Amino acid sequence: MTEPGGAQRPMEKVADIASDIGEYIRQQRSSAKISLRQLSKLAGVSNPYLSQIERGVRKPSAEILQQIAKGLRISAEALYVQAGILDLPTGGPVGDAIRADAELTERQKQVLLDVYESFRRENAAGTPKTDTRDTRETTEESA
């Protein structure tokens, strides 16, 4: 049911999120060519419960989403965004590359992302100061 003005009630929003995350998990499972039963074993989640998640009957916790992400071999962050637990990450391909780097700790990734975002905000606020010297001059000076 919608309220006057077309706004959804909170419970309907939760149901929509559960349905959306379930559909997303189903799509990921299908594209990975994994059966529901296989994913339930890989994720350590019961087959009926996983089925309920995919059908939008249940909204999984962050912990269950993490287990499902492992089973699907996708980032837990992608599932968290789909479930409305996290906001869509910023930074485009650079941010994605930082997040995907397995050789960095979570703390190192966060520091890099913070620095990168601060540069992006600075650039959006105005033109950053750039070094106008020719790179050849810089190279010659250091030789």
What topology does this entry show?
Elements: H1 10-31, H2 36-43, H3 47-54, H4 62-72, H5 76-83, H6 92-100, H7 106-125, H8 135-142
How does this structure look, described?
By secondary structure, this protein is an all-alpha fold. The chain folds into two domains: 10-83, lambda repressor-like DNA-binding domains (434 Repressor (Amino-terminal Domain), Orthogonal Bundle); 92-125. The protein has eight helices and no strands. The protein has helices spanning 10-31, 36-43, 47-54, 62-72, 76-83, 92-100, 106-125, 135-142. Helix 2 (36-43) packs across helix 4 (62-72) and helix 4 packs across helix 5. The N and C termini lie far apart (72 Å). The mean pLDDT is 79.
Strand count: 0
On the 0 to 100 scale, the average pLDDT is 79
Question: Oligomeric state of the chains?
Answer: single chain
Q: How far is the first residue's CA from the last residue's CA? A: 72 Å
Query: Structural class of the helix and strand makeup?
Result: mainly alpha
Shape: elongated
Model regions low in confidence, pLDDT < 50 over at least 5 residues: none
Q: Helicity, in percent?
A: 55-70%
Q: Could you give the order of the helices and strands? A: HHHHHHHH
Top-tier CATH class of the largest domain: Mainly Alpha
- Main β-sheet: number of strands, strand sense, barrel status? none
CATH topology of the largest domain: 434 Repressor (Amino-terminal Domain)
Q: Work out the count of structural domains.
A: 2
Number of helices: 8
Radius of gyration: 22 Å
CATH superfamily of the largest domain: lambda repressor-like DNA-binding domains
Beta-strand content estimate = under 5%
CATH architecture annotation of the largest domain: Orthogonal Bundle
